[in-house]
Amino acid sequence: MVIWIFDQSGMWQPIELQGTPMKLGVQDGRPMVTSDGRAASLGLLYPWRDRFTATRYVLFPLEQEMLRVNGRRLFGHRLLRDRDEVALRCPTGSGTVFFTEESLPRVVAFKSSPGGGPPTFCFRCKTKVEDAQLSVLCPRCKFWYHEMQERSCWSYDKECAGCHRTTAMDYAWKPEPVINGQVATLAARMARRRAATSEQSRG
After folding, report:
1. Domain segments of the chain: what residues?
2. Nearest residue to 169 (alpha-carbon basis) of 190, 154, 182
3. Mean pLDDT by 10 residues, the chain (203 residues)
4. Is residue 198 within a helix (H) or strand (E), and if so which, with residue range?
5. Fewer CB within 10 Å: N-end or C-end of the chain?
6. What is the pLDDT of residue 116?
7. Contact at 8 Å (CB) between 170 and 102?
């Protein structure tokens, strides 16, 4: 899981959440995610998990008036969903961050589940993935693929055979570019609102 933050270099930067509580706030006029008290905290990101699901994050607002999720004010905690947009507004600064449930694909040495269990098969070549073989777990559909010099099943095609996620070793989704200080999707939304208001006033 990742929080995307627009940094001082003018680029969106991913911050991976490691399953620990984090503070969401503002520092030096910009949004920040931190585990310490460096930022003016507006909300708490707290990991949540039950026995049936992977770890997810709940946003607890500390300053309800200064947080919006997908344009709406929070009246309590919220279980964050993929690509949620969180807007922060406070006297010391403002900005927008995005939450995604995605993780990066990584080449790792495969290790069987403790205590045995059914074998794991590569979703591309359908042969067994053995312990210590270099492999990739698709971040979206959770199927395993070989990724060895002699059998590069993950990178064999441009897409995962299970969910069609790109096999590039990068994030499949990133926030829209920033235009005149606003995220492009937000800028387009505001432009439509202004156009609708102007049309109503003329009518």
Report:
1. 2-102
2. 154
3. 83 87 85 73 85 80 87 89 89 84 93 85 96 95 95 96 94 77 55 57 55
4. helix 184-202
5. C
6. 73
7. no
Half-sphere exposure of 182 (CA within 13 A, CB side): 9
Cα–Cα distance measured from residue 78 to residue 134, given in angstroms and rounded to the nearest whole number: 38
Show the beta-strand stretches assigned E in the chain.
Answer: 2-6, 12-16, 22-27, 30-34, 40-48, 56-61, 67-69, 72-73, 78-79, 84-90, 93-100, 107-109, 134-137, 144-146, 178-179, 182-183
> Which DSSP state fits 162?
T
Supply 24's token pair: 């969401």
pLDDT at 178: 64
Neighbours of 155 (CB within 10 A): 16
Instruction: Give dist(CA 140, CA 109) in Å, integer.
Output: 19
Q: Between the CA of residue 10 and those of 19, 66, 175, 182, 190, what are the distances in Å?
A: 27, 23, 13, 11, 21
Those residues whose C-beta lies under 8 Å from the C-beta of residue 11, and which sit 6 or more positions away, are none
SS3 197: helix
Structure tokens at 89: 């507004």
User: Which tokens in the block code for residue 195?
Assistant: 């156009």
